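Researcher: For the annotation table, I need structure tokens for Membrane protein. Please keep the output clean. Sequence:
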Amino acid sequence: MTRYLAGVMPKTPFPLIAAGAAFLTLAMPSPAQAELPEGVRAMIEAAMETGDAGKIRTVLALARQTNPDGAEEIDAIENGWKTQRAEAARLAREEKARKIREAGLFDLWSGEGQLGGFESSGNSNNIGLSAGLKLKRQGEDWSHSLRATADYQRSNGVTSREQFLLAYEPRYEINDELFFYGLAQYERNALQGYTGRYAVSGGVGYQVANNDDLKLSVKAGPALRLTDFEEGDDETRLAALFGFDFDWQIAERLAFTQDANMVAETGGAATVIVDSTRTTFNLVTGLDAKVSDRLRSRVTYAVDYDSKPPAGKVSTDTITRLTLVYDF
């Protein structure tokens, strides 16, 4: 181009040449200002329409790698997407808070019901029916959960299993990880030798992991437990409660769950001998397979352990349940 200008305008003053060169430089887009190809822009727009943040970040990274000259425009697109996403999240939080404030006592509850059969070993070796119900209400700082399970078995006209559990647990969230909990629980299990076991507890918990695929929380606190035995004196004891709740979304339609509670009594008793100790442990491990948006099939394996069972009873009971779960 210099030769072309020199051939056409050999006598042009130097300042005019410099001004013309400057004009050409400004008119031509710099590498950082180059427009993205339509195909790349369409690919980014298609990714953003999915709403999948991971997919969007991947496409933006690939666009930068394959189109370094369009980095400035890609940055502008990403910044706009982040701003829009943050605003949408803020509006969603405000709407959620408004609904919670205006909700009535019976609003905002969700839950699941399950029905199926089980096979037991230990104190009984039978096949029976199992039913369960779980309800939860999530507020801004408080959450409330109710849980009920029932296992009932009759063999040759004789009831061989009659096990019930009812539990209520409120939680107050201090922050995203730390929470206080309360627990009131009732159990009945004639096979393990008690017609009623009542427990109240309160303490602190910590959310170790909390994302879409993995959730893990632990809790611990003091407890007071009253046990009504079929034979012998009733017991009222101070205890310590430890528990954890683990949920893992293995795949889109497959989830692993595990809940455990352990109550270790101190040995101090209000109405009975103070030198005896008792530890109970309840572990439920489950595998859920999603059948539809609301229906799941579930297999669970439960272990109930009592370190000091009544005479003629064994320490460990196990139950394998096969149930269908309906979400509502």
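Researcher: And a one-line annotation?
Model: The first helix runs from residue 2 to 8.
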